[in-house]
Amino acid sequence: MSDKLVGVAVGGAGIREIQAMILRAEELGIHAAWMTTGGARPDSMTAFAATAGLTENIKMGTSIVPTYPRHPLVMAQQAQIVAQLAPGRFRLGVGPSHRPTIEAMGIEFNEPLAHLREYLQILKAILQGGRVDFDGDHYTAHDGIPEPVDIEIMASALRKGSFELCGEESDGAISWICPGQYLHDVALPAMQAGAQRAGRETPPLIAHAPVCVHDDAEEVRAAVRQQVMNPRLPYYQRMLVAAGYPEATEGVWSDGMIDGAVIWGDEEKCAEGVQRLFDLGATEVLASPISAGSDTAASVDRTMRLLGQAAAAAN
Length: 315
Hints:
Layout: E1 5-9, H1 15-28, E2 32-35, H2 44-51, E3 59-62, E4 65-66, H3 72-85, E5 90-95, H4 99-103, H5 112-129, E6 131-135, E7 140-144, E8 152-156, H6 160-169, E9 173-174, H7 180-198, E10 205-213, H8 217-227, H9 234-242, H10 255-261, E11 263-265, H11 267-279, E12 284-289, H12 296-314
Helix pairs in contact: 1-2, 2-3, 3-5, 5-6, 6-7, 11-12
């Protein structure tokens, strides 16, 4: 397989719908299925554990599991099972989420980067090394597992500081709605600086972007505004402003922001959009399909088939 990967974000109301999307992705030759965990929605690691035996080649990854609600040893409990069921195919992506989301649960949200650094260090020690003995400012962890597991541990990133942290500590950075030029101009240099500081190779960059294979611009933009959360949270606004979209402070998607952050158009244009992210330095393109027009199932399937073609082209 090529070093360049094409993945797809999967989801659904229940496990059967989630599994069907993962199996469809594998059938189409898409390299990886990724899933978000949050609130009371279905748990991604449990879904992957239930699906591992039904699949053969497709990678599975979390993008992301919020850290604050789970102690890193609790995260390790689940992750090692999925890694054992799908050796070499599971990637654990974690991240702090956002202050309003976490504090709405009654959990204190403080020093997110320092918190994430300790979290990554604990996870890597116990899952990749088999033993952790850690006393930090945010966490204490002393435990071991019978043997290390084959797993990559990645983290979410939006701003320069989080990309630097990923360069230092993680096995990969997972972005979301970051325009490609911002990834090239800000994210990658930050990751490289962090990796250099830590004396290690720069880890992969996973460019997570909405993708909609559809020909009508107004229908695409309407679909994005309906299906992709408005950039009301400060972290997203600051990233988009830094990427050249000052209107992001209004908390709604402008046409320019959509055109900069979303891959959309016919098959040729979307294939070019995926390739452009590779050319700008992404190691993997993680696509969140957006359905546009009256036939949502057909719209998603059109995007899924394009992702399969893009995966074949990357091989």
